[in-house]
Amino acid sequence: MKTLLLVYASQSGRTLQLAEAACLGAQPFADEVTVRLLPALTAGVADLLAADAVLLATPENFGYMAGALKDFFDRTFYPAQGKISGLPYAVLVSAGNDGRGALAAIERIACGYPLRLVLPPLLVRGELTAADHAAATELGATLAAGLSVGLW
Fold it and tell me: Does an H or E element contain 57, and which?
């Protein structure tokens, strides 16, 4: 059994909606992949070390990732360093602006672990649409499918 860890931060609820859509996408692979949806403030190094892939979901706050996700990185970086090299990851950003600052910061930190980006980031701008929910569902499905067949 593989584990997909989905770490999210959400204040308005939009990022959580997208994270839940990603979980929904992974459901068809439940026989092979366990999905753990955890708030960034409660997810810890043990959760990260037990994961076979991670999806990082955050709103864009002031052109940066949410403080809660940065806190997750701060708490897990040194304890996990050297233990998760090459761990597959993907990113989901819910942005009021363009999301590039949040994405760049996450990618910079991910290089330090180092994590391996396996799918293009999903940047959702503005109010959520049905297409945004569908894209998040597809992201979750693709991550879970890749885990289930050993692609990553």
Answer: strand 53-61
Nearest Cα neighbor of 132 from 36, 35, 17, 26 is 17
| Complete domains list, the chain, with CATH | 2-148 (3.40.50.360)
Q: Is the pTM of this model over 0.85?
A: yes
Burial class (CB in 10 A: 0-12, 13-18, 19+), 117: middle
Q: How far is residue 32 CA from its own chain's centroid?
A: 19
Q: What are phi and psi of 112, to 5 degrees?
A: -75, -25
pLDDT tens for residues 71-101?
A: 999 999 999 999 999 999 999 999 988 899 9
